[in-house]
Write a structure and sequence with these properties.
single chain, 285 residues, alpha/beta, Rossmann fold, five-stranded mixed barrel
């Protein structure tokens, strides 16, 4: 018998089912696992998981309600890990707006993190520089500009959809990341991230326009997850791995292969920053 819309499970019910499934696996681990932080890996950053102790790997296709990824550099797996001795959930893979024309495609994932008790989300991405940072470096996101006109909260009916984004990226988290970068002699730029729909790269004219509007880096992700996390009351820190300059800013032909080549070069820096960040996070209780 076909389900009517009234019979369809709500987003919260789907998230609870996913969380119950994951908690079942957590219950089989040899040690208690109580993560309060999760991280989404951007394109080409899968090697970050090699620096962590992996307790379990769960394919997205096995988690109820989770979307399957379809972009190179995104394996579509959830890792239950210990990084620098601290429990953390690592998500290697995200669904981009351009894959399904759905800004809310990551909604089941973020809702599940909330149901699992995650309080902090670290988001990483591969991005093009608008002169704030050079390829191979890392930029900490302090704010964003949404150039798509889309929101993952379209269709949400409760009043929580009117979420304030004035503090999208937590200022205390940014302070700690700056301190960690200085201590480890890592050049960490800070800037505004521009979200473009993709999948095509931007034109030189678009790059000139978004630079004039105050953007320092440009990419095709991160903003939907940020909005969803803040909707659920999860604090956010975000890092852009700079893999290229924006269109028209140099003579290099833009490609996804360029992204996959440059991102791993910054993985060691990301690991140092995240390890130190987790020390602060768990020290604060």
């Amino acid at each position: 018998m076909e389900q009517t819309p009234q019979d369809q499970p709500t987003a919260e019910q789907l998230a609870q089912r996913s969380a119950e499934f994951i908690n079942g696996i957590i219950g089989l681990l040899p040690k208690p696992f109580h993560a309060k932080a999760a991280m989404i890996l951007g394109s080409g950053l899968g090697s970050v998981t090699e620096q962590a102790e992996i307790l379990a790997e769960i394919s997205y296709r096995d988690i109820p309600g989770f979307p399957e990824t379809g972009v190179a550099g995104h394996s579509g797996s959830m890792f239950l890990t210990l990084m620098n001795g601290h429990p953390m959930i690592i998500l290697n893979g995200r669904i981009h707006y351009y894959e399904q024309a759905d800004a809310g495609a990551m909604a089941p994932v973020i809702a599940t993190l909330k149901a699992l008790g995650i309080e902090t989300l670290i988001i990483t991405n591969a991005a093009g520089s608008l002169l704030n940072a050079a390829p191979g470096s890392v930029m900490m996101i302090k704010d964003y500009i949404n150039f798509t006109g889309q929101s993952p909260l379209f269709g949400v009916t409760d009043n929580r959809r009117f979420v304030s984004m004035s503090k999208a990226y937590d200022s205390q988290y940014r302070y700690h990341l700056r301190q960690i970068a200085e201590k480890n002699d890592i050049h960490l730029a800070q800037g505004v991230y521009a979200w473009m729909a993709g999948p095509q790269f931007e034109t030189p004219a678009e790059i000139r326009a978004i630079r004039l509007m105050g953007a320092d880096a440009v990419g095709m992700s991160t903003v939907p997850e940020t909005i969803l996390a803040r909707y659920h009351g999860i604090k956010v820190a975000a890092l852009s791995i700079i893999t290229n300059y924006g269109a028209g800013m140099d003579d290099v032909r833009l490609s996804h292969e360029q992204t996959l080549n440059y991102a791993p070069k910054a993985a060691a820096k990301v690991h140092i920053l995240i390890s130190g960040f987790l020390d602060h996070l768990y020290a604060d209780g």
